Amino acid sequence: WGTGVPRAQDVARAARRFIEEAVSQRRDVHVIHLGDVYYAGFKHEYDERFLKYWPVDKDEADKIPSYALNGNHDMYSGGEGYFDYLLNERRFRRQQQCSFFGLENSHWQILALDTAYKEGGLQPPQAQWVLDKRNAAAHKSGILLSHHQPFSAFRETTPDLLSELRPALEKNLIPAWWWGHEHRCAFYAPQAGVPIGRCIGHGGVPVLADNNPLPAGVTYLYRDFVAGTDPQFARFGFAVMDFNEENLHVQYLGENGRPHQQEDITGA
Prior knowledge:
The chain has helices at 6-24, 43-51, 72-75, 80-85, 126-136, 160-164, 166-170, and strands at residues 31-33, 66-68, 101-104, 108-112, 141-146, 176-179, 185-188, 196-200, 218-221, 237-244, 247-254, 259-266. It is of the alpha/beta class. The two termini are 32 Å apart.
């Protein structure tokens, strides 16, 4: 999302409408970025392409928590802009300048991982942290968030993430995983020990719409495109998760805020 281009700004405005609706209904709201501020995560890029359009205002920092994972682009400059500047900004201080974190309630445990410090893998102690956290809350449904993908039908990937998390996956402790990195929205059939795998990396990088047949293992691909473009450019989007006890409702929305897909997941 962190390109700052006009249609990425549309994503922020659309997300803002959901934030305001939840606040008006006195529901907790958490806003999470899955990584990549372009091109290299410099301080001025966070200012001009990320913070300038972030859908949470500075004066709302105490009531609407914000979080940001790092992607490979954030690390091209060495990560100083991400660790020392962005995570020290008031809205993101709940992360305590740490690139991995957890959110938890009575039914769900969300663990967000840094897959960019060691690109496509997990810098210690994250793998053990995931296993320890999931073992301690095995009665809750576990969700992983990351920048990099555990698997892909569109490009080659390293096996590091899956191998490092194998102990938790083999115990069925990770029923759902959402990630970014690839600039598309794709749903995957169960594989590699992950029952629900979703790529939502289509937040802000202009790419051409994909009109090819669905690859094996992909059950849904968001194909909407910007009217009047030739060649056709894919629309951006984002996801909204609503937690209600053991029930999770997920909406997948285009840059205009209109849903193009949704699903209901029942947890522990």
